[in-house]
Every structure is written in C-alpha cells, then in structure tokens.
Amino acid sequence: MLKAIYPGTFDPITNGHLDIIKRAARLFDLLIIAVAASPGKAPMFDLAERVALIRAATAEMDKVTVLSFDTLMADFARQQQASVLVRGVRSGADVEYEHQLARMNQHLLPGLETIFLFSDPRWSFISSSLVKDVFFHGGAIHDLVPAAVAQAMLRQRRDH
Ligand code: COA
Q1: Which positions are annotated as active-site residues?
Q2: Whole-angstrom distance, CA of residue 99 vs CA of residue 103
Q3: What is the mean pLDDT of residues 93-111?
Q4: Residue 144 near residue 120 (C-beta atoms within 8 A)
Q5: Tell me, what's the pLDDT at 70?
C-alpha cells in the first residue's frame, strides 16, 4: 500500500491546498493530511477546528484521511509507516525552502521522499496568511477557501 502524507498548518485550508489534495489522492492508495500544531504560528483556528474544517472539505474523498501531529514530521511519517511526503510548489520562491525541508526530512528519516506538485495557476498567489489578511481588511475570500472555512472565519470574527 503506497501511503503519502501531505503536511501543513492549514490555518485555514484554502482552495490551493484542496487542489493539491485532490491531485495527490489520485497518485496514492492513501493520502494522510497531517495537520501540524505549529504553535509558533499562533494559529487563528485551534488544531481540532483545523482538522474539522479539512474533514468537511474532503468528506467525499475516500482515499483521504486527516490526522494532527505535534512532533517532527519525520517521526510522524515513521509512526504512520508512510514513505512519501507531498508538497505543493506555487512559484520559484517556494523551491529553496522546499529543498531545505525535503533534505532535512530525508536526513531525519532516510528513505523518506518528498514529491512536488505545481500549484494550479488559479491558486499560485494564495497562502493562508494572505487569505486571513484580506479577510481582516474586509476583502472577499469566498472564492479562495471552501464555503465552510469562509463561514468559520465569519463566526470567529463575530465571537472574538
Ligand atoms: N496553496 C495555497 N497555499 C499554500 C500552498 C498551496 N498549494 N502551499 C503552501 N501554502 C501556504 C500555506 O498555507 C502556508 O501559509 P502560511 O504561512 O500563511 O500559514 C505557506 O504557504 C507556507 O506553507 P508551508 O511551508 O506548508 O507551511 P506550513 O506551516 O503550512 O507547514 C510544516 C510547515 C508543518 C510542514 C513544517 O513546519 C513541519 O513539518 N513542521 C513539523 C515540525 C518539523 O518536522 N520541523 C522540521 C521540518 S524539516
């Protein structure tokens, strides 16, 4: 069984992430979306909310499962017995950083390969932070994130 992991903070999941998930799911028997705690990023949504939003957005995808982790990515991959990491590349600017991550993960777990999918051009300019920035300044984000995420962002703003 060829198992892959798509890791990220997903604060929140965007259409760009979803595009990578849909395409990667076709390549593997199982795709684990690994949601990193990433406390250093002071996420807008807590870990359980991020997991729930991704589960809602991927409910129809039977080869996709969503888990959280707060360890090293390499340790999580070892624990899940997954030998492949999937990462999305939006532009040349991502490549240097991705090169470092891939090499470090391989250093930590020899045999762990990272494969890269180029983002669909429709989503190559977005990141979770940029979506949040646009939202907090009153801009429209409904065409950048799944509907449940847009609703959760509105709810979060109303409650805080
Ligand atoms: N579409 C839209 N946005 C995308 C994207 C895509 N295809 N690919 C990346 N992004 C965005 C992300 O949303 C993120 O936005 P943000 O910085 O505003 O939150 C940004 O681009 C950077 O993405 P990424 O590099 O995936 O950061 P991340 O925080 O989502 O994930 C981890 C980084 C979690 C994979 C990494 O920190 C990790 O593995 N942590 C665990 C600890 C560890 O093992 N550390 C050593 C690593 S070698």
Answers
A1: 17, 41, 90, 128
A2: 6
A3: 97
A4: no
A5: 98
Q: Tell me the best of 9, 101, 106, 131 to mutate to test the pocket of ligand 1, counting ligand atoms within 8 Å of each CB and taking the most.
A: 9
Q: Identify which of 68, 73, 123, 132 to mutate to test ligand 1's pocket (most ligand atoms within 8 A of the CB).
A: 73
Percent of the chain scored above 70 by pLDDT? 100
> Degrees (nearest 5) of the Cα angle 49, 53, 58?
145
Specify the pTM. Answer: 0.97
Tell the residue nearest (CA) to atom 42 of ligand 1.
Answer: 72
Q: Give me the helix-helix angle, 47-57 and 147-159, nearest 10°.
A: 150
Q: What is the mean pLDDT of residues 13-38?
A: 98
What six digits make up the tokens of 82?
Answer: 């997954």
Cβ atoms of residues 20 and 85 within 8 Å: no
Give the Å distance between the CA of 8 and the centre of ligand 1: 4
Are the beta carbons of 83 and 113 closer than 8 angstroms? yes
Amino acid at 61: M
Between CA 81 and CA 55 the distance in angstroms is 21
Is residue 160 very low, low, confident or very high in pLDDT (cuts 50, 70, 90)? confident
11 close to ligand 1 (CB < 6 Angstrom): yes
